[in-house]
Amino acid sequence: MCIFKLVYGVGLRSLRKLFIKINPSWSNQPSDAAAFDKWKMKLSKDEEISFNKGDIEEWDLSLMTTALLYSKSCALEMNKRPDLARALKELKIDRNKLLGHPSTERMSDAEFDTFWPQLSKNFEILGAEPDDIAEIMLQPGTHCK
Questions:
Q1: Phi, psi of 129 (to 5 degrees)
Q2: DSSP secondary-structure letter at 142?
Q3: CB pairs under 8 A, 24+ apart, for 91-99?
Q4: What predicted TM-score, i.e. pTM, was given to this entire model?
Q5: Which of 8, 13, 37, 50 has the fewest CB atoms lying closer than 10 Å?
């Protein structure tokens, strides 16, 4: 549950903030999406529908990472900061391994010990606050191992 909260809570919020930082005039309207240079974004039909609505609050992690990595305005910024691009690519891979098609309901302690620091570090590189990440472990009812 901790990994889920990290990725889809703190992490996704940090990606949305990064997107807005790069695209400050974005107003979550379909007109934003229509005017946006998607450049090398290869979207599935569902992602295209979500993207075209323009509301980044509805975009999932996959669509956010794709927009940040492969849209023209974001790619220009990523080229200036290769650490951001590397963190995004690692997050995309880890998310697919862990949450896209999990093999079991529960993650082993060894997997958690590997992925928690890796995901946390990458989200911090992308702008997540370390205190927000640490807070996940302290939430009542959250069993992080």
A1: -80, 130
A2: -
A3: 91/7, 91/11, 91/61, 91/65, 91/119, 91/122, 91/123, 91/126, 92/61, 92/62, 92/65, 94/118, 94/119, 94/122, 95/7, 95/61, 95/62, 95/65, 98/3, 98/7, 99/3, 99/4, 99/7
A4: 0.90
A5: 37
Residue 136 lies in a domain: no
Contact between 53 and 28 (Cβ < 8 Å):
no
The C-alpha atoms of residue 25 and residue 23 are separated, in whole angstroms, by 6
106-136 per-position pLDDT tens digit: 788 898 999 999 999 999 999 999 999 999 9
Residues 145, 69: Cα–Cα separation, whole Å: 32
In a domain, 103, yes or no: yes
Q: Reduced to 3 states, what is the DSSP secondary structure of residue 72? A: helix
Residue at 133 is within a domain: no
pLDDT of 106 = 75
Decide: 78 and 84 in contact? Cβ < 8 Å: yes
How many domains does the structure of the chain reveal?
1
H-helix or E-strand containing 7?
none
